[in-house]
């Protein structure tokens, strides 16, 4: 049996809500109930093994922070059981436990004492804390005079330098400059290597995918999905941005892909089939934009980003629209694809061709290729924007582009029933590896027509002239006698 760092069993948390303060008094005096019950968490079951990093995502009000506070011991549950093994250190909000009038030095000792350290232990680690926070010149200044980034650095440094067995972080990794964020991620990875357990809440999907072994999607106090971070993040995007009918099902916990996500694998084996296809209407989706929770997410970073979750357009009746025949070469090459949006105009097939127009299954770094998409319009459609995104097997975005960010106008108007192929030329400045291409069609106002996430494999042959862990190929040339000319 696996030894667990955190175990949560049938955990629920409810709050009493009164419409008016006088109702609270009347309830006490009359004994008659005048309050409503708000269930922030409902029957949560969660197990976290030692040495694992678990990300928790969800919309505002889903119950993420409530769950972290209960695990950290700063909030009592209404019912259920929870057990945590070892010392806990929690960063639940910026400057938690710190006093604004105290200096940084005094707050280091105050924070350390709150986390269970003795004064001599804090003194031993003081220099390490200050060095990590990079606040040497300001450590004796009042905490209230610090910028938000400086406060975040000191808070994180204190919380992590106590060497906890379980580290709980609520959105703290998104604060601070790029250098501090890199240091924070490095420390998270070192904790994991040393067998520490980490529970992380973040609205940054790239952060969740990059550092977590597993992700949990909360919705209205329930666990909607639990599994591979990339797939769970895709489901989160579906929950935020799918058409109204699918979103309603999602809120009820019936997203098709979420039903057994923990049994799905993140690894995708290359196949000989390389073109892609219309997916079933029940397939999930990703996206971003116009949701405060998704500030840091960017698909192709313009109008081809997803529209707001309040989008009111009605989905097309797919059964009333005849489907185009699909050849054997157009069958899916992997089971990773997530798909959603209105699909009144849709991307039917995707293929890669070389400079001579031949379809290819693998590409060579620095070679010239075209991504060719066959588009079918089921009704007259104008004002469309096309975009692409390239991600690696962990779900980390490497490149994104759309017609808006490219400074281009919309696609030519599609007539009802029209079928057209569009091609995007590119140079494969990318090292050997297995990647995935997302393609999307959206209106200039961000309303999505067809989004096919991770729809097409991009397999790059080995490149012997660069390091195997390189993310891009910069085409470097060495000049041993530089004269100042480019």
Write the layout of secondary structure elements.
Elements lengths: L3 E14 L3 H10 L5 E14 L3 E6 L5 H9 L6 E6 L3 E4 L12 H11 L4 H15 L14 H14 L4 E5 L7 H16 L3 E5 L3 H7 L2 E6 L2 E6 L1 H13 L2 H8 L86 E3 L4 E9 L14 E10 L6 E9 L4 E6 L16 E9 L5 E11 L4 E13 L26
Parallel strand pairs: 3-7, 3-8, 5-6, 6-7
Antiparallel strand pairs: 1-2, 1-4, 8-9, 10-17, 11-12, 12-15, 13-14, 13-16, 16-17
Helix pairs in contact: 3-4, 3-5, 4-5, 8-9
Written account of the structure:
With 486 residues, the protein is an alpha+beta fold. The protein has helices spanning 21-30, 64-72, 104-114, 119-133, 148-161, 178-193, 205-211, 229-241, 244-251; strands at residues 4-17, 36-49, 53-58, 79-84, 88-91, 166-170, 197-201, 214-219, 222-227, 338-340, 345-353, 368-377, 384-392, 397-402, 419-427, 433-443, 448-460. Helix 6 (178-193) links the parallel strand 6 and strand 7 (197-201). It is globular and about 75 Å long. Helix 3 (104-114) crosses helix 4, helix 4 (119-133) packs across helix 5 (148-161) and helix 8 (229-241) crosses helix 9 (244-251). The protein has nine helices and 17 strands. It has a domain at 269-314 and 321-460: abc- transporter (atp binding component) like domain (Coagulation Factor XIII, Chain A, domain 1, Distorted Sandwich). The longest helix is centred in the middle third of the chain and has 16 residues, at 178-193. Helices cover 21% and strands 28% of the residues. The strands form four sheets. The chain has a six-stranded mixed sheet, sandwiched between helices.
């Amino acid at each position: 049996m696996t030894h667990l760092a955190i175990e949560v069993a049938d955990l629920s948390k409810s709050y009493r809500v009164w419409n008016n303060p006088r109702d609270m008094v009347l309830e006490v005096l009359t004994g008659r109930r005048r309050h409503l019950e708000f269930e922030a968490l409902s029957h949560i079951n969660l197990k976290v093994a030692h040495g694992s990093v678990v990300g928790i995502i969800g919309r505002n009000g889903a119950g993420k922070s409530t769950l972290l506070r209960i695990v950290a011991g700063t909030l009592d549950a209404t019912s259920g059981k929870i057990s945590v093994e070892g010392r806990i250190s929690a960063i639940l909000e910026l400057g938690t436990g710190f006093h604004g009038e105290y200096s940084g030095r005094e707050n280091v000792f105050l924070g350390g004492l709150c986390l269970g350290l003795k004064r001599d232990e804090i003194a031993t680690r003081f220099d390490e804390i200050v060095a990590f926070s990079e606040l040497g010149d300001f450590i004796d200044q009042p905490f209230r005079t610090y910028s938000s980034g400086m406060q975040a650095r000191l808070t994180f440094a204190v919380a992590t330098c106590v060497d906890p067995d379980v580290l709980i972080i609520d959105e703290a990794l998104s604060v601070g400059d790029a250098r501090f964020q890199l240091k924070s991620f490095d420390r998270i990875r070192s904790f994991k290597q040393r067998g520490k357990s980490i529970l992380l809440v973040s609205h940054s999907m790239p952060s969740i995918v990059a550092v977590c072994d597993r992700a949990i999607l909360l919705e209205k106090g329930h666990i909607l999905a639990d599994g591979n971070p990339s797939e769970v993040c895709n489901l989160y995007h579906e929950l935020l941005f799918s058409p109204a009918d699918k979103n309603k099902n999602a809120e009820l916990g019936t997203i098709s892909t979420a039903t057994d996500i923990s049994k799905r694998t993140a690894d995708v084996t290359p196949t000989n089939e390389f073109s892609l296809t219309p997916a079933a209407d029940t397939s999930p989706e990703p996206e971003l934009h116009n949701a405060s929770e998704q500030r840091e997410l960017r698909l192709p970073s313009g109008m081809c980003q997803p529209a707001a979750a309040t989008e009111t357009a009605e989905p097309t009746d797919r059964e009333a629209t005849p489907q185009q025949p699909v050849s054997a070469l157009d069958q899916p090459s992997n089971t990773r694809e997530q798909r959603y949006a209105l699909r009144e105009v849709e991307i039917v097939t995707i293929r890669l061709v070389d400079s001579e127009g031949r379809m290819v299954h693998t590409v060579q770094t620095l070679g010239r290729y075209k991504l060719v998409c066959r588009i079918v319009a089921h009704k007259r459609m104008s004002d469309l924007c096309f975009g692409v995104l390239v991600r690696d097997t962990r779900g980390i975005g490497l490149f994104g582009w759309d017609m808006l960010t490219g400074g281009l106008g919309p696609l030519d108007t599609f007539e009802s029933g029209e079928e057209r192929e569009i091609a995007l030329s590119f140079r494969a400045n990318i090292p050997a590896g297995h990647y995935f291409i997302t393609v999307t069609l959206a209106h200039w106002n961000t309303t999505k027509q067809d989004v096919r996430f991770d729809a097409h494999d991009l397999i790059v042959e080995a490149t012997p002239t660069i390091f195997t862990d390189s993310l891009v190929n910069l085409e470097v040339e060495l000049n041993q006698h530089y004269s100042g000319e480019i």
